[in-house]
Predict the structure.
Amino acid sequence: MNTRVPGRLALALALCALLSSACGGSSSSPTGSTGSGSSGSSACGGVAVGPLGCTRGMMTGTVAGVTFNGGVPIGGATYTPVAAVPALGLPALDFIVIQGTSADLTSLTITARAKVGTASLGAGVIDPETRQPTSNNASLATRANGAATGQWNTNILGGTGTVTITTVSTTAATGSYSFTMVPQAGSGATGNRVVDGTFTVAF
């Protein structure tokens, strides 16, 4: 049986990888800035995070060697089910999107299949089940005085890395990540960024 993904589904998965916020379920991911564009912070267990807090969990680690504590607020973690299609040999393709924002408004967003285990992401990575470019991706955005100053990515266009899902259900997930992210042209970003850490979120 030919188990390759049909053209329309392949296109949808590719678009999802590049536009994760558009595929992140019923709630859109926050930007981490206040309505006026000014910076601010909230405390989560004594740790300063973005102004929207950490109601849905935390992302902790380092960005270019600097400590990153990203609060995941309401709307910052979503689980989206995608049913299996046995007739096409396709497994369930459920995925999660999480975004953490730090006190300086640096935000990290990760999209990954909701599947326990370690998965690679980056240019040239093929999902072994769908035989299509992986939908896993990550983006890092920095801000200063409320204005965007740069964006780095690991996705089907560039960068390398892995995301490990330790536990996952429709209500919560834990895991870790490690990326070498490449600058997005025109964003003000320069040079690669090494990003790693762990996450604990509720949906």
User: Anything to note?
Assistant: Residues 1-39 have pLDDT under 50 and may be disordered.
